[in-house]
Structure formats: C-alpha cells, structure tokens
Amino acid sequence: MFDWHRVAICCAVAGEVSLRRAPRERLEDSADFRQLSDGPPVYAHRFAYPHLARRDVGIDTHRFLGVRRFTSNLPPDFGLRASLGRLPSGEESP
Amino acid sequence: MTKKSRTRSIAIWTAVALAGAVCWGVIALVRDEQISAVWLLGAAVGSYAIAYRFYARFIVRKVLEIDDKRATPAERLDNDMDFQPTDRRVLFGHHFAAIAGAGPLVGPVLAAQMGYLPGTIWIVVGVIFAGAVQDMVILFFSMRRDGKSLGQMARDEVGPVGGAAALIAVFSIMIILLAVLALVVVNALAQSPWGVFSIAMTIPIALFMGFYMRVIRPGRVLETTAIGVGLLLLAIVAGGWVEDSSWADTFTLSPETLVICLVIYGFLASVLPVWALLAPRDYLSTFMKIGVIVLLAIGIVVTLPVLDNEPVTKFASSGEGPVFAGALFPFVFITIACGALSGFHALIASGTTPKMVQKESQIRTIGYGAMLMESFVAVCAIICASIIDPGLYYAMNAPAGVVGDSVQSASQAVGELGFAISPSELQAAADSVDEESLVARTGGAPTLAIGMSQVFSGAFGSSLQAFFYHFAIMFEALFILTTVDAGTRVGRFMLQDTLGNIWKPIGRVSWKPGLYLTSAIVVGAWGYFLYTGVTNPLGGINQLFPLFGIANQLLAAVALCICTTLLIKHGKVKWAWVTGIPLAWDVVVTLTASYQKVLSSNPKLGFFEQRSTFQAAIDDGKVLPPAKNMDDMQQVVTNSTVDGVLAALFAIMVIVVLLDSARIWWKVLVSKKQVETTEVPFVESKLWAPSGLIPTAEERAYMADQHTEDDGSVDTDREPVGSGSRE
After folding, report:
1. Fewest CB within 10 A of the end CB: N or C in chain A?
2. Angstrom distance (rounded) from CA B52 to CA B58
C-alpha cells in the first residue's frame, strides 16, 4: 500500500508517499485507504490517492536477502513534487 | 430560518460580540498592572467567532459565489480512478495538523520583544483579514482548477515572468527557512546534554520504527507508534540521567559541532528512503504536536497565568531591541508570519486539499477555520513568551554579543536595557529546568519551552518542570528536523529541474548521482547560512530572522497577487479589495522592511550600512564590539553583504510579481481585453454534504428527510441541493 506522510515545511501542508506492506483486511476495513484499481490489491492512503490516480505505477516485489522488497517506479520526491505541482514532464497530475 | 431561531441567533452572536469586546476593552484599558492571559484568549476567540460567522461567510457567498450545485474535482473525477471526496472533518483535521508546525510558535516569541499587544493584535487582525482569507481564496481557486498548485496558477494566470519569480522566491525562501529553523535547533541544544541526547535518540527510534513496521510487523502503525512514543518519553527521561552522568561531556556540544551534525543529518535524511526515517518520524511528531497543543491550551485555561511582559515595550518605537533590530512597523508584521499571514500555506495547501473537498461551501471550514485555529496556537505562543519574567526573556533572547556568556554579564546587560534580574535568579531559572545556563539561548524555542514548562507545571505539578521543558524542546526540534528533511528534498528537486535545463542528466529525476549532488548543494547552501548564523558576532537570529520573515511575506504577496488577479479576471472587480487590501498591506510591509534592511543608515538595522561601518573600522585597524577580533570583523562584513543582497533580491521579486499582475489588471480593467482563465467548466453535483464541522438544524433535518449520512454519502437518486451554505 502507498502510505502518505505529512511533512510540515515551516507551516505548510505537504506529504510524501512510501510503499509498504499491510494486512489486506485492515486496509479494506479502514476508511483511510482505498484500492487503486480492480486489479492487484494495491491500496493508497486517501491523501496519496489523488496524486496516484490515473497513473501507471509499476511495483517491484522481488526478495532481497530473504526479505521481500516493495519498490515502485514513481520518481523520487513524488509526493512533494505532486503537492507542489512540479512533477517531471509527462508526469503531471490528471 | 424561522423568526424564533433568527432571534436566538441574533442573541447568541450579540453575546459573543460583547464578550469579545469586553476582553479587548480590558486589554486596552487596564494599564499599570498585569492582566491575566485569559483576556487575550477571550479577545482572540471572540474575534475569530465573529470573523468566521460573518466575514468568512460574506466572502464565500458574495465574493467567491461558491456554488454547491457545482461538482468539486473530488466529486467530478471520483470514478474509482481519480480524486476522492473526503469527509470535511477529516480534511479539516488534516489541513490543521499540517499547517500548525513550528512556524506559529517561534515568531510570536521573538515579537514579544515589542510587548504582548502589537503581536496579539497582528495575529488576530492579520489572520481574519489576510491569512485566513488568503488560505481560503487560494483553496477555492485551486479547487476550481482541479487542484492546481500555486506555481502552476502563477504561470497560467499571471504569466511566465510571475511564475519564474515565484519559483526563484520559493527556492531562496527554502534555503533561508531551513537555515533559520536549524539555527533555532542549534541554539536550543547547544551546551545541553539533556536536549542533545533526547533529540539524538529520536533518530535511532525512528529508524527502529521504520524497520519494525516494514520488516518485523508490517502494517502495524498504531502498535509501532505506541512503541515509538514510549521510547520517546523514555529518551526525554533518560536525557536527565545522562546529564548527571559521566556521559554528559560527550553530549555537550558546541554550536559549531551541532551545525556539522545537522548538515550531515540533513543530507542523509534527504537521501534515505521515505520509510526509513521520514515516515516513522511523522507518526511521532503528529502525536507530539497534537499532544502539546492540546496540553498548552488546557494548561493556559486551567492556570490562567498573568502576563509579566509589558503591553508595548519601548523597543516598539525605538527599534533598538536586542532580539532583532527595527521598530514595530514593519518588523512585527514580518516577524510573525505563520499564525497571521503565511505564504507557505498557499504554496503547498493548493496541492492536495483542493482535490479532496466534497462541497465548495466547505472551504470556509477547511481554509478559513483551520487558519483561525493556527492563529490560536500563535496566541498561545505569545502568551507563553509573555508570562515569563522580562529580565529572563531578554537574557535568553539577546545575542551573546550583548549579554555575554555568564549570569553576571547577562544580569548587568539586562539592567542596562531597563529590566531587572539578578544573577542568582538567572541561575535558578536554569537550574529549574536542569540546564547549565539559559543566557543567550536565542531563537525562541528555549523561551517557548520555558513558558510552556511554567504553564504545564502550573497545571500538572511543578516537580516536572525540567521534564516539561525538554518535552517542549523535543516537540519543536522534531518538527524542525522534519522540515530540514522535507525542505532539502523540495530544494533539491527544484534545483534538479533548473539545472536540468543546462545539463540534461541532472534533470533525470531518478539518476542517483544527480540526486546526491543536488542534495549536497542544497544542504551546503542552508548549511552556509546556518554556520554564518551560529558564528555571527551580531547574533544569527538577529540577522537572519528578518530575512526569513521578509521571504515568507514575499510568498504571501505572490499568493495574494494571484487571488486579486483571479477576482479581477472573473469580473469581480468590486470585491477585489478583499484580497487587494491585504496585498497592499503585505507589499508595503515587505518593501518597507526590505528597504530598511538594505538601505537604513542605522548600522544595527541596514545590512549595507553595517557593512560600511565594519569595513571602515577594518581599514582603520579597529575592532568594533561585539566583534572580538579582525576575523569577527571580516565575518560581519561578509555576512552583511550576502544578507543585504538577499534582502534586495526579495524586494525586487515582490516588485516583479506585482508589476506582472498589474499588467493583467490593466488588460482587464483599462484595455477591456478578453483574458482567459483556466477555470474548469461547470458540472452539476450529485453529492450532498453539510458545510460546516457541525451540521446546522436545517442540514440535520435534510439528512433525516433524505436518509443521508453526515459523512456526505453520495445519493445519486435525488436532485442536488441549492447553492450556498445552509445556515
């Protein structure tokens, strides 16, 4: 699931997304999360959701040293860039 | 509304107005004796209530003409693929929690130098007529443009020149902001083994939480947060043990060493993955923020502390205050930014919140209401700074060059300023919070922590004063460290984008060397200002805080320019004063402050006069106090030059944005040319939700009639409701 982390820059609302595992039933029961599509069970926090919507996101779930890693192809600083309206070319919010 | 409920409403609001007026009356009329802080709280809350009920309502109805028949982006694009309407109460909480950071706590503490009255009046009046209006109007216009950011709106609605100026402004501001906030942390932690230990422990605690939540117990946020909070409180308690142990020397760090630690921390934190440090610290700092703000408000109401500070000090008119130079006008208005008017809110609040609003009428609660709450936090901060002994306040907030480094020299210097505090009283104040010394602990954070610890210990027990002091320090430091991390990330991607125009590989956002290089440049830039602030013989806060204030208000000028331009573009010229007057005020304040900081003939105030004075002394082979040697003298010359150039640059950018906006106004008003706006076309709403946090009687009746839920559930089988809030 894509979580949303509030970061205060002085006194302003922004956020950053991170990708992590979470029990599916918890996400389904929580009002804070929403499934991104009808396909794989990928959820997003409600504040990350508007920035992820309509976007093709690739998620890598390979194991590394016995631990399954979850990484995505979102650009670095995705949440902050999206909050500030400064996504790289071709990555603008819908 | 029935006649009976109308009469009741008039009676209630008359009573609220009278209560607020009585509080203001007491503040205004009681002279030569101390007053209780409760009068400030009463005046603020009464004013907020009236402003929210009448002025904010007037703006949303008459000026913005909000239309609940119009679908918001959250509803219009809510097809399981796009945005998502969010319960107004959740969104309000999110918005408030995010804007109430360290900013509204530091500025009011420094502005208490002028007395409690100027700062309080500016916080209350400023938020009502400028800050909350700016937040709400930007939220509205962004919402009407599918959640476009301030930068995008500046580019689209004003022009590329305004957009570019806004971009340069944001980057410059970010650097100064990070330096100033990091300076606040350095001043709070220098020579404090307790503080250094407990703050240092937050890093391994956060890393552990990140690992625990990612590897050991994935997804257990509450469980992880509970463990983290427990460890955090233990770290504060353990700081006291460390101070009394043989480890104390290890954790007693000089300001210069702390600068190096912070620079290394800033770089590493910004290149680490989000889950490792940033995410767990978010969980910790959210708990700390809500806990401290609630405790503070309860503490003030329970203890009803008396204000020791004067209503208006002599520094308000003389401009010779030791905390920062300059008279009440314009410096109170730039020192207190967050809490009254903050450009930062508009910068980023236009990014996420507008994409989630259910109904247009809710912008009053979310945009205006959340900013009023932040203003209330700022009033609490100025109260904290004003309940402590003025002698202690100046001993803590005057730079070391003025008060020296001992309680004896500080006592003497404070006496020369016209206030009294004995060396033994100064030492007792330090002992009460288990600090070696409180002399020259500038930056506002230690002062706020002292005030908070007095409030908390008054309400919850005096034996815990040292714990509460360090709890408050940790609260502020956690926020500032988050800002250091996030600000460095923002700065680096702005730099990546800009440098990418010159050398393509840097612009490739996922190219790691580029990421590291730009992170290092940004950290180096704010690290430079931080280092000069720490080592500046004239005092870093004294020199840099006005620059930060000017920068923040410059951003507010950009936001208010966009608001005014959009009102004019939409044919609402007769209402353009709603944002035009705050804009005019903000421009006058910013330009006056910039002018004085650049060109004043007073060397304490004007950077270039300061430079000339110290350069002339160097040429004559003299050393001017507070410099101690020629190296100090040279440093003052270099710092003054850099700071002066920055202040001038900020002023030029204000003028550029204003002129670019005026070009559009001229086009519309005089040339009568057609101008385009990027507002999205009307789409009818099928969604219903209450306007305010608490549904009105009419809204409750409607919900009962329609079987609609309070969370704004979609009911596609009925006609949409009429426009405007239903009160």
Report:
1. C
2. 9
The residue written with tokens 């904010």 in the block is B56
A47 → closest Cβ in B94, B99, B497 = B94
Report the C-alpha gap between B675 and B663 in whole angstroms: 12
| Tens-place pLDDT, residues B448-470 | 999 999 998 888 877 788 988 99
pLDDT at B719: 41
- A&B contacts, CB < 8 Å: 188
- State the smallest CA–CA distance between residue A13 and chain B in angstroms: 5
> Is A49 at the interface with chain B, CB within 8 A?
yes
Q: At what angle do helices B132-143 and B540-569 cross, to 10 degrees?
A: 50
Contact criterion met (CB below 8 Å) for B408 and B149: no
What is the distance between the terminal CA atoms of chain B, rounded to a whole angstrom? 8
| Chain-centroid distance, C-alpha B226 | 28
Reported as type and span, the H/E element at residue A44 is strand A43-45
Cβ contact A20–B214 (<8 Å):
yes
Per-residue pLDDT tens over the stretch B597-611: 999 999 989 999 999
Q: Which residues of A touch B351 (CB under 8 A)?
A: 13-14, 82-85
Distances (CA, A) of B699 to A53, A68, B518, B706, B719: 32, 50, 52, 10, 15
What is the number of residues in chain B?
727
How would you classify the pairing of strands A13-19 and A33-35?
unpaired
Q: What is the mean pLDDT of residues B506-521?
A: 87
Cβ contacts of A49 on chain B, cutoff 8 Å:
83-84
Range with the poorest average pLDDT among B393-407, B627-641, B670-684: B670-684
Q: In the predicted model, what is the mean pLDDT of residues B221-225?
A: 81
Q: Which of B151-165, B170-184, B304-318, B634-648 has the lowest average pLDDT?
A: B151-165
DSSP state of B601: S
A45 neighbourhood in chain B, CB within 8 Å: none
For range B81-90, the mean pLDDT: 67
Minimum Cα–Cα distance from A52: chain B residue: B82
Q: What is the pLDDT of residue B1?
A: 65
Most confident of B80-84, B234-238, B715-719: B234-238
Residue with the bigger pLDDT between B671 and B13: it is B13
Q: Which of A7, A53, A85 sits opposite B82 (nearest CB)?
A: A53
Distance of CA B66 to the CA centre of its chain: 28
Question: Of B198, B186, B262, B264, which is closest to residue B234 (Cα–Cα)?
Answer: B198
ipTM attached to this prediction = 0.81
Q: Is pLDDT at B715 greater than 50 in this prediction?
A: no
Q: Which residues of B427-452 are buried (b: 16+ CB within 10 A; e: fewer)?
A: bebbebbbbebbbbbbbbbbbbbbbb
Q: Do B101 and A20 touch (CB under 8 A)?
A: no
Rounded-to-integer distance, Cα B376 and Cα B30, Å: 23
In chain B, residues with a C-beta closer than 8 Å to the C-beta of A18 are: 273-275, 278-279
B192 SS3 class? coil
Phi, psi of A69 (to 5 degrees): -100, 145
B-chain residues near A10 (CB < 8 A): 101-103, 177, 181, 338, 342, 344, 483, 552
Query: Closest to A7 (Cβ–Cβ): which among B99, B150, B278?
Result: B278
